[in-house]
TrEMBL record:
This is Flavoprotein domain-containing protein. It comes from Kingella oralis ATCC 51147. It holds the Pfam family Flavoprotein. Residues 98-248 form the Flavoprotein domain. GO terms for molecular function: catalytic activity. Signal peptide: none annotated. It comes from the Bacteria. InterPro entries: Flavin_trans-like (IPR036551), Flavoprotein (IPR003382).
Amino acid sequence: MKTVQEIRFENFELLIKEAGTIAELARKTGYDKPAYLYQLRAQVVKPNGKALQLGRRVALRLEQGMNKPAGWMDIDHASEPALAAVAVSGSLKSTGNRVGVALTSPESAVYGAAVIRALLIAGKQVCLAFNDAAERAFAQTGIALDDAAAVRKHFYATEAQLSFADEHLSPFALNAVVVPAARGGSLALIANGATQSPAARMAELALATKRPVVIAPCEAVLSAAQLHNLQTLSAQGAVILPVSAAASAEQAEFLTTCVLAQLGLQ
């Protein structure tokens, strides 16, 4: 599996090719002189003995200057044609690679987006489901979850890489399901089989068919009933990874690391 740095440097080369020259890339991305980008490409060793790294701040600047969606630099675009080919072939292998992401809370706009991006980087096909709370939260960040094309554009994903679930989702369609940032109400619905949205239904079906399920509750305080629901979910086979109700980039990064580890992707 490629590291984030390897992926970023490969995408850096794609941008150089798209711009035509390093000098033109520097101009488009706001660098007065191309010297830094030349050094970055050569991975010049600094006085501390470490080679230059392509950090998130520089990656964001390159994305913005070249009109790429946020997170584009962190996705392995070399895998896109292969994924599309698998989807067209109709091979059973294409469903075995699918991970469902159930967006069920306002905090999903931070945690869910990070998990989606991490799964795409890992080469997984992502199937999304969401409820009204998640839809409103994503809308505040400029992402309309009911616009499939816009969501794919934001995550720089093809139709083969990013799909959407509905109430007719097959119980055996997904290889695993992640519920990032679930509040007490959603936990209760999933634990007790009383799901009312495609997002909660996705997790319920995965538990029923013994698929791996990772649930990240994000309540600041857990009541006795919520603890009981978590115990029920754990008994049904779900892995519980609590996260802070105060969503942040650092918390999201920690969650994605744990999710990838649980799914055997790290």
